[in-house]
Write a structure and sequence with these properties.
Elements: E1 4-10, E2 13-19, E3 23-28, H1 31-35, E4 41-45, H2 57-63, H3 79-82, H4 87-96, H5 106-109, H6 112-121, E5 130-132, H7 135-142, E6 153-154, E7 157-158, H8 160-172, H9 192-209, E8 215-216, E9 231-232
Parallel strand pairs: 1-4, 4-5
Antiparallel strand pairs: 1-2, 2-3, 6-7, 8-9
């Protein structure tokens, strides 16, 4: 059976959960290292494809299904904004291309280096193997299409009850969470929620590989580079 990989960004790079006959994980410093891993499908929690004007249909479709968890899905900035090195410059670029005018949060701005890292490597052909996913969307799918009752984080800190709920959903959905080797990373490098999110991405990757995934929007949208802008689970 061919391997799949779920990937989530973390403070020092990317945490990859590799699922084949067994399940393991690896810390990659660059996304190029992730691409070098053997896998039929790689599912990553990071935007692929940037709009010329603010707002992608993918986020709108996914967000309205997540109930109280919808705030975990942010509006993807414009390509012009993501290309900016400075925060004020990025806000100005996004303001000029959004209706109504919208700035960018500092939290999203800090993700720009990872967005640009993927974008520099991505091609339409590579999207046959690399897919954009979102952990909360995956957990929604595991939960029978219902929003989760508990948040993953409270005031920016991982919440044990929320993490326990997500571990339980992974187990019920057939992901071998108990077989995952212990994570020996510093919490400042890889958070417990980062690893759990990567597991959810790996679960989504297997559904993509097996033709079982759902994807929004229903009709694919593409950016100026021809990259598909869609979220799967």
């Amino acid at each position: 059976m061919s391997s799949v990989i779920g990937v989530d960004g973390c403070p020092v790079g990317w945490i990859a959960v590799i699922w084949n006959e067994a399940v393991t994980h690896r810390l990659c410093r660059t996304f190029a290292e992730v691409l070098a891993l053997e896998a039929a499908i790689i599912a990553v929690d990071m935007p692929i494809g940037f709009p010329a004007r603010e707002g992608r249909q993918a986020e709108k479709d996914v967000r309205k299904r997540l109930g109280a968890r919808q705030s975990s899905v942010f509006a993807v900035p414009t390509r012009a904004a993501v290309a900016c090195a400075g925060y004020r410059e990025a806000c100005t670029a996004n303001l000029e291309a959004s209706h109504p005018p919208k700035k960018i949060s500092k939290q999203i701005f800090h993700l720009f280096p990872k967005m640009r890292e993927i974008d520099a490597l991505m091609t339409p052909a590579l999207q046959q193997r690399v897919h954009e996913v979102h952990p909360e969307f995956a957990f929604w799918a595991m939960n029978g299409g219902q929003p989760l009752a508990l948040p993953k984080k409270v005031k920016g800190t991982p919440s044990p009850p929320g993490l326990a709920l997500r571990r339980s959903l992974l187990e019920q959905a057939g992901f071998p969470i108990d077989d995952l080797p212990e994570a020996l990373y510093r919490r400042s490098d890889v958070g417990a929620d980062d690893l759990l999110d990567a597991c959810a991405c790996a679960w989504a990757a297997r559904r993509i590989r097996d033709g079982e995934a759902i994807r929004f929007p229903a009709i694919d949208q593409h950016d100026a580079r021809g990259l598909r802008m869609a979220i799967s689970a």
